[in-house]
Amino acid sequence: MRHPNLQRQSDRRAEILDAAERCFARAGFHRASMQDICTEAVMSPGNLYRYFPSKEALIAGICERNRADAVDSFNHVQEAPDFFQALAGLARYHLVDRTDEEVSICAEIMAESRRHPDIRQLYQTIENDIRDRLAGMLQDAAQRGEIRTDLDPQAVAGLLMAIGDGMSWRRSVDPKFNAEESLPLILNMVHGLLALPRTDASGDGARS
Questions:
Q1: CB-based contact 137:83 (threshold 8 Å)
Q2: Contacts 24+ apart (CB under 8 A), 74-81
């Protein structure tokens, strides 16, 4: 069991990150001030700075929390009966079920990674971790005979991430975009790319 003081500190950090996310989603990283975040978190500046000494530290904290969330989602989909169901579960969780606020934060982090070296390094570390996990899923699925074996898992993982980034960005900038309606189309496209070729009744390996 965690020590009560450590648990309170962890809970308070989470509350501050939640408040920061709301401020960043509304105003962006650069327009949202530390005072705005203090007001949102109902906390004095001195108390907030005990947990996060700068806005960059808050962004890093959000990135780390997102990474932990991504790892947890990968762990959960390992229980899916096949690769395509696991992929569909990941896609729904990250591209449809996330709130508009969470999607906006992801877009802000992507943009900030182009401007701030520390955020860029952290963001790239998270991206590399997710790409490796996706590539591992693809490689395992190929070994089980669920998907094609003639594709580079790392390259396909990068393509899947690009599709996911595109859907997230579209959600953040286009209020008319419906991720719920678009997801089945995207999954069908991915299935067409990765699925084993069908054979005809004679079993000669020709595509149907």
A1: yes
A2: 74/133, 74/137
d(CA 133, CA 128): 9
Summarised one tens digit per residue, pLDDT across range 178-199 is 999 999 999 999 999 999 987 6
pTM of the model: 0.81
Kindly list the structural domains of the chain, giving each domain's residue range(s) and its CATH number in brackets, ordered by start.
1-53 (1.10.10.60), 57-208 (1.10.357.10)
**pLDDT tens for each residue of 134-159:** 999 999 999 999 999 999 999 999 99
> What are the φ and ψ backbone dihedral angles of 55, each rounded to 5 degrees?
-65, -35
In angstroms, rounded to a whole number, what is the distance separating the alpha carbons of residues 67 and 73? 10
- HSE-CB at 3 with a 13 A cutoff on CA atoms is 3
